[in-house]
Design brief:
The complex is a heterodimer of chains A (308) and B (159). Chain A is an alpha/beta fold and 308 residues long. Chain A contains 10 helices and 9 strands.
Chain lengths: 308, 159
């Protein structure tokens, strides 16, 4: 198994062994992410950072991951101030930037952009989100969080919120199927997980249950993964409020949960989690966003060939 | 042979001297076959089209083109919308060559992705690419960029 020069486009190109290798590498690098020890294994290497869409966590955690390993970061900056504003294609921009960098992190508003970039780039492309498509490093950090804070084997997980449009949920479902997780899907009927994904999970012998209420599932699960429900998906504001209330995670709701239950959320959150949950032992979402750092360190070190 | 089959043979399907008979086209797809072959623009010869003809597997379409033998590229495109079609090359009223269509595992520059937000539908220097599979009666195309699937209406999205 070699990761050197590998493009990270979609979770579907990763086997369970490959995922485990990334997670093991992340665990080894975690003390460096916490600034407990120092490393310069990426010294002299440059990461090109190209974000065509806004981001806080993904962008900053990639940048800090690179810097914690002794590497440098070269940013495209604002799209409006670049040649893209003059109409340069993504293909041309990639062929220019790959001459300046040892790997490129790309977020783009169009589906398939990372795949296209990989066809033109001489250095590894790391997909940091392509429209409604894939966001594999988010899935890696979700899996890492589950492994560190709960357990991946024999996992019972509930995914709540917008399961129809949420790209993180689709990739995560696929990855969880490799670990034989038991999955409960909690969403209003308008935002259910697409039928083909449910069929795909069932064909992999994954136990999938669907419900509209978190209460139905809360007692039996190890992880509750909430996602953002966007107001604009609902033409009727009253309907949105009803759905948002039915998916709200409160300390009172969590009283019925196992003591070791972890609540995750890819953030940013809107109204899905009551802020009072932040102070309970169940809250895991800020740790989750930190775990993006060791996971991205692992991926950067592996694709740039600093680690095997 | 049933009376209906006999009628088709005798009345509707007049033998051609030279050309191509495309048989076992999925019912309802004949007009898309004509679109692929750019008919009538590309040919002034007689073209006969049979839609919803009875066959042992239900209904089928048949297209007969006089004075023209199809090339491999054209046949490959037809395979996408009619994976069970047979191509009969007719010379001097005889079937000179008979072949089933072949479905390639990957196609390029043949179909446009249905996802308006797919990178292949922007001004990038790439042609559309699809992985092709089949469920027997229908081809299933998965965009190599955005992974969107086209199945029922491939004929509507031919480039």
């Amino acid at each position: 198994m070699t990761f050197k020069d590998l493009h990270i486009i979609s979770m579907k190109s990763f086997s369970r062994d490959m995922i485990d290798h990334v997670l093991n590498t992340a665990e080894m690098l975690e003390p460096i992410a916490r600034d407990k020890t120092k490393s310069d294994i990426l010294k002299g290497k440059v990461l090109g950072v190209m974000f065509f869409e806004p981001s806080t966590r993904t962008r900053m955690s990639f940048e800090t991951a690179m810097m914690r390993l002794g590497g440098d970061v070269l940013s495209l900056g604002s799209v409006d101030a670049s040649s893209i504003a003059k109409g340069e294609t993504l293909a041309d921009t990639i062929r220019v930037v790959d001459g300046y960098a040892n790997a490129i992190v790309l977020r783009h508003n169009k589906e398939g952009a990372a795949q296209l970039a990989s066809e033109f780039s001489s250095v590894p492309i790391l997909n940091a989100g392509d429209g409604a498509g894939h966001h594999p490093t988010q899935t890696f950090l979700d899996l890492y969080t589950i492994r560190r804070e709960s357990h991946l084997d024999g996992l019972k997980i509930a995914l709540a919120g917008d399961l129809k449009y949420g790209r993180t949920v689709h990739s995560l479902c696929y990855a969880l199927s490799l670990y034989g997780a038991e999955i409960t899907l909690i969403s209003p009927k308008e935002l259910r997980l697409p039928a083909e994904i449910i069929e795909d999970l069932k064909s992999r012998n994954i136990k999938v249950t669907e419900t509209e209420s978190i209460e139905d599932a809360i007692e039996d699960i190890d992880v509750l993964y909430a996602t953002r429900v966007q107001k604009e998906r609902f033409p009727d504001p009253a309907e949105y409020r009803k759905v948002a209330n039915s998916l709200l995670i409160t300390p009172e709701l969590l009283e019925k949960a196992k003591p070791e239950l972890k609540v995750m959320h890819p953030l940013p959150r809107t109204n899905e989690i009551d802020p009072r949950v932040d102070n309970t032992k169940h809250a895991c979402y800020f740790k989750q966003s930190f775990y993006g750092v060791p996971v991205r360190m692992a991926l950067l070190a592996l694709v740039m060939g600093a680690l095997e | 042979m049933s009376i209906e089959d006999q009628q088709i043979r005798e009345i509707r399907v007049h033998p051609i001297e030279n050309g191509t008979v495309i048989d076992h086209i999925n019912a309802g797809q004949a007009l898309n076959v004509l679109k692929i072959l750019n008919i009538p623009t590309s040919s002034s010869r007689v073209v006969s089209v049979l839609i919803n003809a009875p066959s042992i597997h239900g209904r089928k379409d048949v297209v007969k083109i006089e004075g023209r033998e199809l090339n491999v590229e054209e046949v490959d495109k037809i395979a996408l919308i009619a994976p069970n079609a047979t191509i009969n090359i007719i010379r001097n009223f005889e079937v000179s060559e008979k072949d089933i269509v072949h479905i390639h595992s990957q196609i390029e520059g043949v179909v446009r992705c249905i996802n308006p937000n797919c990178i292949s539908n922007s001004n990038e220097p790439v042609t559309s690419k699809f992985a092709v599979s089949s469920n027997g009666r229908r081809s299933i195309l998965r965009c190599s960029y955005c992974e969107r699937i086209i199945s029922d209406d491939i004929g509507e999205h031919l480039l």
